[in-house]
Amino acid sequence: MKINKNRLQVLVGNVAIGGGSPTVVQSMTNTDTANRKSTVDQVNELWKAGSELVRITVNNEEAAKEVYGIKQDLLAMGCDVPLIGDFHYNGHKLLKKFSDCAVALDKYRINPGNVGRGSKRDDQFAIMIKIAIDQEMLKALMDDNALLIQPLSAKSIMKEALIRSVIDSAKQAEDLGLSKNKIIVSCKVSDVQDLIEVYTNLSKRCNYPLHLGLTEAGIGTKGIVASAASMGYLLQNGIGDTIRISLTPEPDESRVKEVIVAQELLQTMGIRAFSPIVIACPGCGRTTSTFFQKLAGDIQIYLRKSMPGWKHKHQGVEEMTVAVMGCVVNGPGESKMANLGISLPGTGEIPVAPVYVDGKKTVTLKGDNIGIDFIDIINSYVEKNYQVNNKD
Asked: Within this chain, do residues 268 and 317 fall inside the same structural domain, yes or no?
């Protein structure tokens, strides 16, 4: 695993991005920011799930008016997550008119392509920078390309225009007085191979911290697979200082899912640990009962719900592994490899469940309370084996 320590480091609130810091998880609300309560509730939910930065839409005056109050409400709840304001088209006006909004936000997300057109663009961009793919460029690149003996494809030109726009806009921000260690750049696209190519090239041409995201990734498994395939490759090659998994939620589905997927991507790749991992077999004809599936799910939910309290008290608990196995074929072996493991009885097997702690069989559980008893064993193991964090 490559770790790129040559990137500049940027502080967003109290979160360090780049410069060899761990890759940071961020997410975005889908509430109407003008609805202060619903936005506060969702930001807090995302933060509790592990989102280290949260982006909110600031698209009109009604939204901008509420930003300061949203920040204050969050701080009163003990939620100190840095807030990112997402601006398009009218950001220069909103930030100028609502100074408390400008102060409350820890970072501004600006798309240089829709800040303004023609002569207005530089002034409007400058206003936003001072408070905190150009079509013209694309046309010029297309014209130059047409003169080549072997012209590049229109798609290649588009990708080059994206990269140049990002770098030129960052340089312009520096020329306007914004220091290098206040800039994070992003060049998000919606195609997996394009994302890999664009970020690979961008990483070679600048040393700003890079925000990764496959935009419009899609819904359900499609969005998860596409995001993991593209960002997994980039992260493996040391590219990416902060990430967002942009999943289209199902109706009424919690926004927390994109945070969990981002964490699991980083943890599966060995980049960061966020929560104890549950190892479970996929099931087969030996496991016709659904008990092991339910127990594995219940244990995963329990571990995630326990982490907000555990992480402030028990140092290193996020690296714990728990195996929930469904029969005697792989059950004992996998259980011995985990910190804690339970091998449940498969079809036709003796109705007992041996428990393994750090590779050794310690107890055999029976009866109707196997799940409750195993959770008690987990709690005892955490208290005994993970050092109390005296900082809190």
From this structure: no
Phi, psi of 218 (to 5 degrees): 120, -170
pLDDT tens digits for 109-136? 987 666 666 666 667 777 666 666 454 5
In angstroms, the CA 154 to CA 379 distance is 58
* Alpha-carbon dihedral sign for residues 149, 154, 159, 161: positive
User: Where does the pLDDT of residue 152 fall: very low under 50, low under 70, confident under 90, or very high at 90 and above?
Assistant: confident
Q: How many CB atoms lie within 10 A of CB 188?
A: 18
What is the rounded distance in angstroms from the CA atom of residue 77 to the CA atom of residue 74? 5
Last residue of a domain, one of 240, 273, 306: 273
Pair 197, 252 in one domain: yes
- Tell me: do 367 and 292 sit in the same domain: yes
d(CA 202, CA 239): 10
Query: Read out DSSP for 237-259?
Result: TT--SEE---EEPPTT--THHHH
Determine, yes or no, domain membership for 224: yes
Can you list the alpha helix ranges (DSSP code H) found in the chain? 36-49, 61-76, 91-97, 99-104, 119-131, 135-146, 154-175, 192-205, 220-236, 256-268, 291-313, 331-337, 370-385
Instruction: Single out the residue in 246, 273, 300 at which a domain terminates.
Output: 273
- For residue 257, the enclosing domain spans 184-273
